[in-house]
UniProtKB/TrEMBL annotation:
Entry cofactors: Fe(2+)
Coiled-coil boundaries: none
InterPro entries, per database record: Carotenoid_Oase
Protein name as catalogued: Carotenoid cleavage dioxygenase
Cofactor note: Binds 1 Fe(2+) ion per subunit.
Length: 523
């Protein structure tokens, strides 16, 4: 055991490579599983970090493991399989990463000829399709995705299907890992393009057709947003959606093409090495009507922030209310290298995240007075101040610091929600080893925490079909126990915030990033 590890707490089980299951495992149930709960939770996340003697550098480089929890008749079955991406299959053949990942430089493919190996060694022409971030539906089909331009179709049996290249449909070189879906099945997403000018393309996949292929044929780019930087593009992981608008936040964490060019000259590097944090810049808020029209008013934050996840957004009395989980900087990404994570008992916390609310007044800036608060919503500390042609947005802090993977009742996506749910980060803070429920109006915070050795993953809200209130339902979350006890799926009554049961497994339940719950058709 490394000297800096304590005898009683070892975080390395959180970051170990997992393995596939040949057959689903049925859980041992403690407490109760709600009898009305009938469906499947699908998840994806980094799952394989080691291939022989080779280990990837960064946690986000781990090859995707697909997993599912089938819930019905008060029973739970667990299954997991690796996503057979090109990146995974090439790495398994070569014994190391061939395609460039977030923190790991790609290598020359030994299965290519000499000329092809020479080209790939100096220019990262092939983007990874290691879709280890999220799962979302297009029509009846499921897809895994990340921040690249590729998404992979998968079956409900966790089989890997065809790769979809959004560059061919929308001219994208990368896209948000969190597409958003309306109630009628229409899908929106935002990606970046750098071949015909640096810009972001907003695309729409309408619910026309019976299959995802038919829907994709009817898809189109509805708007383009030019980058405000001539030599870079903002890193974009998620965006917001209301009834009538999409909200894109251009953050000052950019893919620097000067850094990319330099890496080509030096023989290539990892994606993270191309990123640059411009702390002196501000975040730009871009509002897009769902018709594709860009709102011309310029909105900027009062100071720079980094973020990964929107919590929600909605319209109210001529204003757009936006809740996001924000950091002061992207320093968190520097704390996610596998070698460091496996050799410590605590993860140093730098610039921890918290929930922040921004309010955008939908007004003509020419008619708005200067140096006064333009926010009309009552009971908020969020402000919007006009100076010249720019409206500066000042946030209201809506939570303590140290939470991530926020979730809401999906029935309230784009509508006013009173609650959101989140998990604590692996750092030591008020949210450590917990799941939480936060009231967005009062900031009241409720915790589920059982042991300092238990690390919950993303909370997923599942509505009770007989319920009326926003929080009528259950939260489910996969919990990894680093004390070598059983990993489990916990069930928490979202209204009372009391644990009602857990499903325990003898097999390893890997930490995932995001999941999707699908109700069974008969439920």
């Amino acid at each position: 055991m490394p000297a800096n590890l304590t005898e009683d707490k070892d975080l390395s089980p959180l970051f170990r490579s997992t393995e596939e299951l040949e057959e689903p495992e049925e859980a041992v149930i403690e407490g109760e599983v709600p009898s009305w709960l009938n469906g499947t939770l699908f998840r994806t996340g980094p799952g394989k970090f080691d291939i022989g003697n080779f280990t990837v550098n960064h946690w986000l480089d781990g090859y995707a493991i697909l997993s599912k929890f089938e819930i019905g008749n008060s029973k739970v079955k667990f299954h997991k399989r690796f996503l057979r991406s090109d990146a995974y299959q090439k790495a398994m053949l070569a014994g190391r990463s061939i395609l460039t990942e977030f923190g790991t430089k790609g290598s020359a493919d030994p299965n290519k000829n000499i000329f092809s190996r020479l080209v790939s060694s100096v220019f990262p022409v092939e983007m990874t399709d290691n879709d280890c971030v999220s799962i979302f539906p297009i029509g009846p089909d499921l897809f895994t995705t990340s921040d690249s331009c590729f998404m992979r179709k998968m079956t409900q049996d966790l089989e890997t299907c065809e790769k979809v290249d959004t560059n061919k449909y929308f001219g994208l070189n990368g896209a948000s890992a969190h597409p958003l879906r309306e109630e009628d099945g229409t899908v929106y997403n935002i990606g970046f393009s750098c071949l015909t000018g640096l810009k972001f393309n907003v695309y729409k996949i309408p619910r026309k057709g019976f299959t995802s292929k038919e829907m994709m044929k009817n898809s189109k780019v509805i708007a383009s947003i030019p980058s405000r930087w001539s030599t870079g593009l903002a890193y974009n992981h998620s965006f917001g959606m209301t009834e009538n608008y999409l909200i894109f936040i251009e953050q000052p964490y950019i893919v620097s093409f000067s850094k990319l060019a330099s890496s080509v000259v030096k023989g290539g590097s990892a994606f993270k090495d191309w990123l640059e944090w411009k702390s002196e810049e501000k975040n730009r808020f871009v509002v897009i009507e769902k018709s594709g029209k860009l709102i011309k008013t310029e909105y900027y934050s009062s100071s720079a922030f980094f973020f990964l996840h929107f919590i929600n957004a909605y319209e109210q009395d001529g204003e757009i209310i936006i809740d996001i989980n924000a950091y002061k900087s992207p320093a968190v990404l520097d704390k996610m290298y596998i070698r460091d994570l496996r050799s410590t008992s605590t993860v140093e916390e730098v610039d921890p995240p918290c929930a922040q609310r921004f309010i955008i007044p939908l007004i003509d800036p020419k008619a708005a007075p200067e140096e006064v608060n333009l926010v009309r919503a009552e009971g908020t500390l969020a402000r919007a101040i006009k100076a010249g042609h720019v409206i500066t947005l000042y946030p209201e802090i809506k939570s303590d610091y140290g939470l991530e993977l926020p979730a809401i009742n999906k029935n309230f996506l784009g509508k006013k929600a009173n609650y959101f749910y989140a998990a604590g980060t692996v750092c030591e803070n008020i949210f450590s080893n917990s799941l939480c429920k936060i009231n967005l109006e009062t900031r009241e915070t409720q915790f589920w925490r059982r042991s300092e050795f238990m690390y919950p993953g993303e909370p997923v809200f599942i509505r009770n079909p007989q319920g009326q209130a926003e929080d009528d339902g259950v939260i489910i979350s996969a919990v990894t126990d680093v004390s070598k006890e059983n990993d489990f799926l916990v069930f928490i009554d979202a209204k009372s915030w009391q644990e009602i049961g857990r499903a325990l497994f003898s097999s390893h339940v890997p930490q995932a990033l995001h999941g999707l719950f699908l109700e069974n058709p008969s439920s």
